[in-house]
Specification:
Blueprint: H1 2-22, H2 39-51, E1 58-62, H3 66-71, E2 78-79, H4 93-96, E3 100-104, H5 111-122, E4 128-131, H6 134-140
């Protein structure tokens, strides 16, 4: 009986370890490692960045789709998708030169924003922070939105 239990636990351990390897476990970065910022914190960082642009206080990373990014984003945000940051890729010196790397999505349900936060952390970037309220909270707080102009052929005809 004791041998059977030992085999069961060993098999369960092997299955769990195998699932982690096959499931694409990204290393030691977990949700508990993520440092989230409030909307007020984000506003203060943006204000500090505007006051001292040469100090590279914060870079906003927007991992949403290109269409969402073009439709509206925090001013100055950089569009960066998960496939552009492969796991264990070398750090981009331009991004890593900022004191804070702030990742945001649409709202707290934005899995891509949380995934990008973890990816950057797993790749060794320092100062990575997550803004869970995302663009929805930014708008609610009266934050400025930057958008690309619509293509000339998509504008409504003038009467």
């Amino acid at each position: 009986m004791r041998m059977l239990n030992h085999r069961f636990f060993s098999a369960a351990g092997l299955v769990t370890a195998g699932a982690m390897l096959l499931g694409g476990c990204t290393g030691k970065t977990t949700d508990r490692d993520i440092k989230a910022l409030t909307g007020g914190d984000v506003q203060k960082l943006r204000a500090a960045a505007l006051q001292s642009p040469s100090k590279r206080v914060v870079i906003f990373i927007d991992p949403r789709s290109r269409d969402e990014y073009a439709a509206g984003r925090i001013p100055g945000a950089r569009s960066l998708s998960l496939p552009e940051v492969p796991l264990k890729a070398p750090r981009n010196p331009d991004i890593s030169s900022y004191g804070t790397i702030l990742v945001y999505g649409n709202n707290p349900a934005s899995a891509v924003a949380k995934g990008m936060t973890k990816r950057l952390m797993a790749n060794g970037y320092e100062g990575v922070r997550y803004f869970p309220g995302g663009l929805e909270e930014w708008r609610r707080l009266g934050g400025e939105i930057e958008a690309d102009a619509p293509a000339p052929d998509s504008q409504p005809p003038k009467n």
